[in-house]
Amino acid sequence: MKCSNFIISIFVGAFLLIISCSDDEDSCTETTWYQDSDGDGLGNPEESLSACEQPEGYVADNTDTDEGEEDTDTDGDTGGTPSTGSTPLSAFDEFNTDSVTISFDGDEITIESNGLPNHTSPYWATTEPLYIDRIVGDHSTPGTIRSGSYILTVSNDPKIAATSSATGLGAIGISVTGVPIYNDQERANEPLDLETTTGFDYAGGHNGPGGYHYHVESSDVEANTTLSHDDGELIGILADGFLLYGRREDTTGNYPSDLDVSGGHVGSTQHSDEEEFYHYHIINEFYVGSNIVLFGADLQGTPNTIL
After folding, report:
1. pTM of this prediction?
2. Are 239 and 175 in contact (CB under 8 A)?
3. Is the C-alpha dihedral spanning 146, 241, 237, 95 positive or negative?
4. What does the pLDDT look like over 236-286, one tens digit per residue?
5. How is residue 65 annotated by DSSP?
6. Burial 115-125 (b: 16+ CB within 10 A, else e)
7. 3-class secondary-structure state, position 101
8. Residue 123: CB partners within 8 Å, gap ≥ 6?
9. How far apart are CA 247 and CA 59, in angstroms?
């Protein structure tokens, strides 16, 4: 008899436990949760599920308007840049057609140049029509402007990379005149010095082992009818596919105040029809004497080889 009572007690206890669990399940109130794939605390209104408890990677908020776009912190302030935008193709109308050929193939842009500028310089051979006597500086480096070959292929929708890239010796970009752009070094690990800058012409260039190239912003002289000086004109395109503009914003005439460590920001230019995209500006700082380096920082995108 005692055994029968014990068995009955077990069955009654199990029945009560089942009822209790059923009551717990019935009392669950499901909530709609929204996917937060970029971890900003805001959910994607188009990606949701219902659950009693908050699933990992989901939030109750559904107001994220840029969910899925990569946020890259280019200046180390943890703020991030939500979108880089596409390169405005009208910018390539600025390039010197006598030296530069632009071709488009799907999502790629190829810039080919012979390196011959369309402005005067004491670095032209004296027999050339664009030769002039020196009007800035006090000496010239050996050699004259000669034809070369520079080929750069970039994406028409370049992205900011997870890590920046230091520039090296040689061409880091191609200017609107067709002349290659160099960084702030004259030799490996040796920054430009005052003596070197006195050999630059008014265009900010001189001759070297790799041919004629620019290091610094052009001078404000009467002979300069082509190149940017303290304005927002297009300078050229760098090896990571981002465009480089002068010190000011052409659309406002002001110096931009939100540049990252490389002189870049997301904004509109005279070429983008008010659409915003990531681009560089010459950083408004004197480097040596009165010379301002065209680009002396790391590239924020993934650099392509200039052949």
Report:
1. 0.75
2. no
3. positive
4. 999 999 999 999 999 999 999 999 999 999 999 999 999 999 999 999 988
5. S
6. bbbbbbbbbbe
7. strand
8. 140, 143, 144, 145, 201, 205, 206, 207, 212
9. 43
Question: Which run of H or E residues covers position 108?
Answer: strand 108-113
| Tokens 């560089």 -> residue | 280
pLDDT of 65: 56
> Cβ distance 91 to 250 under 8 Å?
no
User: Are 203 and 117 within 8 A, CB to CB?
Assistant: yes
Looking from the CA of 10 toward its CB, the CA atoms found within 13 Å total 5
Residue 90's SS3 state is helix
- 220-235 burial code (b ≥16 CB/10 A, e <16): eeebbeebbbeebbbb
Q: Is the dihedral of CA 55, 56, 61, 67 positive or negative?
A: negative
Beta bridge partners of 121: 131
Strands (E), 156-303: 160-165, 173-175, 180-181, 185-187, 190-191, 205-206, 213-214, 234-238, 243-245, 264-267, 277-281, 299-301
Tokens 């460590």 — which residue? 261
Which of these, 251, 239, 235, lies nearest to 283 by C-alpha position? 235
Report the alpha-carbon distance of residue 150 to residue 172 in Å, rounded.
11
* Segments of the chain scoring below 50 in pLDDT: 1-25, 67-72, 74-82
